[in-house]
Amino acid sequence: MEDSFKTIGKGGEGFYSEKRSKFLAFSHHVETEAQVKEIISSYKKKYYDARHVCYSYIIGVEGVGDGVSFRMNDDGEPSSTAGKPIYGQLVKAELTDTLIVVVRYYGGVNLGTSGLIVAYREAALDCINNSEIEERIIEEKIEFSFAYPMMNDVMKVVKDLQPRIVEQQFDNTCTITLAIRKSEAERLKDRLEQLAFK
What is the mean pLDDT of the chain? Predict the structure, then answer.
């Protein structure tokens, strides 16, 4: 089972020019659509004199949480000539939680649909090649409640399987929230459940 994914760590920049049109590409790590909106509006302000600010993003991992959401935006370019080729590069590089924005300065010569597709695709590719790509693991959170006398047993499981402790409350009844690599989650649940029957 896949329990890791690739995303942009440090964003990068890409560039492509064709018949005096300039295509500036930028990559960002994003986790919410609100972040995407904020970044897009900052590019529209910064490059207010550009003809088009096109983008594509993919957020989420298959089968985790709410699943995957993605969007392609041509920002006034002919349909599927900008957002789609950018999206294609994200898919090819197997990236998620990633946004690529391509800002176009029009050079006065029409590139035609195939020219635009190549330009947006190449700008996005150059941008990905100049970005830092990180592999991150998909974690599952497990909450476990237990009586205080079981503390040592629980901590032994934590020491053996090395989950990340998200939060813990120790009282008469203790609660611990652990995050562990998805592929190890069942093993951790089993070990904790066995403690309950000791």
Answer: 93
